[in-house]
Structure formats: C-alpha cells, structure tokens
Amino acid sequence: MSVLRALVLLVALVVAGCRLDVETIAPKEELEIGRSFVELLRQQEFETIEQVLTPELQTAETRKQLELAAAAFPLAEPQATKLLDVTMQRLEKQATYNFTFEYRYTDTWVVTRAAFRRDADGIRIIGISGHRLQVDPMTLNRFEFRGKSPLHFLMLLLLIGIPVLVVVTLVAAWRARFGIGQWLWYPFIAIGFGTLRLNWNSGEWQFAPLSVSLLGATYEKIGYGPWMLSVGVPVGAVLFWVRRARRRRAAIVSAAQDGGSVT
Questions:
Q1: Are residues 158 and 190 in the same domain?
Q2: Domain with 32 in it
Q3: Higher pLDDT pick, 222 / 237
Q4: Rounded to whole angstroms, how far apart are CA atoms 228 and 230?
C-alpha cells in the first residue's frame, strides 16, 4: 500500500504541472539589467539606450520606434511592477536574455520587453518595446472551457488519463513476477515517448518526436503566457499489459492441457 501511495503522490507532483514563478528562474544580475533598460525607456533616455543598441538597430527609424514605445507609459509613477516572463539562451561565447515586465497604473497596464545579448564585447540591446493595455495581462490567457473544440477536451482527458494508466501499470508491474528483468520495466513504464503539445488558449499544436516526459503528461504556464498541455505515448505501459495478457493466455492454455485451472 505504501508503494501505491508513493506513486499517487508522484502523479500529483508531476501532473500538477509547473506554473512557474519566473522570479525564481530569472538570473538576478541580468534581471536588473533588463529592468534598468526598461526604466531608461520609461524615462525617455533615448540617447543612453541608443549607445547600447546593436549596430543594425542604430538607425533613425529606431528612434521613432523608441518614442512610440515610451509613449505607452503614463507620466505618473507605476503603482507596482513585476516580471511576467523570461527566456534565456546560453551558448559557449554569448548569451541572450529576454525579459517581459508588467507596469501597473490606476486604470491601465503596460507590458514592456527588454532583450539583450551579452558576450565578450559587453552588453547590447537587441530589442525593447512597450504596449499599453486596458486589462490586466494576467487575464489574457485564462484557463477556460468556453469556445474550446472537442480536441481540447480530448487532450484534457489524455492529460488526466495517461498518468493514471502509468501509475496503475507501475503498481501492477510491482506486483507481477517477471523474473530478473522486472526492475527494467519501471523506468520504461514511467516515461511517455514523444510529446504532443497543445496551446490551450490559441489552439496551436506542436509535436516533438524525440522528447520524453515523466508519467507521460505535464502542463505549464509561465508568467502571463498561455497554458501548455503536453502528453506522450505510454509505450511501456501499453507493452506491459500486452505482455501480461499473453502470459495469462499462455498460462490458461497450459493449465487446460494439464487439466488444471487458472484464476
């Protein structure tokens, strides 16, 4: 019984997904750099920004774009600011960072982005923007059922059903007697192969054939981004039940030939 409880707990932890707190995964130093660039934009320090732009962005058109982005910010001080999203790409000799912030005012919000590259030559801005919204950006990608297609609900059913199948199969494998190779079944059963991913909010589908997922299903939401549901094919679980069925049929045939019985 303790094994079953442990497996159920594992399902709860994995399928609970990862609605990540972006503040915990954002590198602190780079976060402050990104925030300082946004503050330069808000305070219309265009010349300072232009000094750290990549060469291809140092054009007259860029100044116009900076002025438009800065105009998204009200003149008053924001009531609150917070990090909404962060993406990072680290290579051997350089790294790029993309931070998205929310600036909240009395009756409006500004979503602003600062992206920059860091390498041996220093730090260069590769993108910066600001957009004013009349609604809280965190409400833009709610998890709701209205207007969803049958495929959305099928994906939701798989998101719940596949981990349940995997856990039931792990319990059955623990109770079974498959000989010396029994322990090899556990990791095989616990993994879903390939990843079918659904953007719940936009309805966009993606497929990654060379990926794996623990228990075959996860979901995630980072910042104000969309809800992403992912499932994998429980190959190990399916093969376990196929093998178990064959073993039972073989045992029934053997018992019938010997005049015995199998329960």
A1: yes
A2: 26-139
A3: 237
A4: 7
